[in-house]
Amino acid sequence: MPNTLLIFGGSGFIGQKICQKAIEQGYHVYSISTHGKPSINENWVNHANMTWIASDVVKHDTWQNDIPDSIHYCINLIGILKQTTKQTYVNSIIRPNDIISNWATTKQIAYLFLSAKFGPSDYIKAKKEAESLITSQDNQNTIVYSGLVTDKNHLLKQTQGVVLKLGAKIPVLSHWCKQVYPIDVNHLACAILNVVKSPDKTSKYVDLTQ
Length: 210
Known about the structure:
With 210 residues, this protein is an alpha/beta fold. It has a single domain, classed as NAD(P)-binding Rossmann-like Domain (Rossmann fold). It contains 6 helices and 9 strands. The strands form 2 sheets. Strands 3-2-1-4-5-6-9 form a 7-stranded parallel β-sheet, sandwiched between helices. The chain has a two-stranded parallel ribbon with strand order 7-8.
């Protein structure tokens, strides 16, 4: 089963678009998330090469029995921007990355982690802790930075994106706005799949905010 992708968080906003683009490009895709299959009515969701697995990677490792041995690339999109008493940065960013990146390193499967350059201080601290582990591992790991992810079908996200683009042109706001410079979800999905197809083995970082 060549070109098989394993995507953690594939049922989310960004994950769905990556799964869709990957299916269109001929990949076999396995998505693992607590929700499993998303409740949207689109043909690609039920494609023969698309497999949805409902699993909480922090609580158990049964997902390892549901995927093939021929995984080509592993993508981790698991994360939250604002934590709650139940969903913390530890159990939604740090622990999933520990588990997944260690598994990928053991299997020597290329691994991609979606990070960020700006956000709530504890959120960025959690992202940096995850990055620290990734950069210490002996594996083909890539850390991708994206800013605000927008979608033309979501008015609020589009409006926020326009505001950030305008702010990036104002000297007093420029530095902050460029850290979260908006990127359309379709462009982000294509950029991540380009990393999968043509990884840069000389660098662990891909900055999409520049």
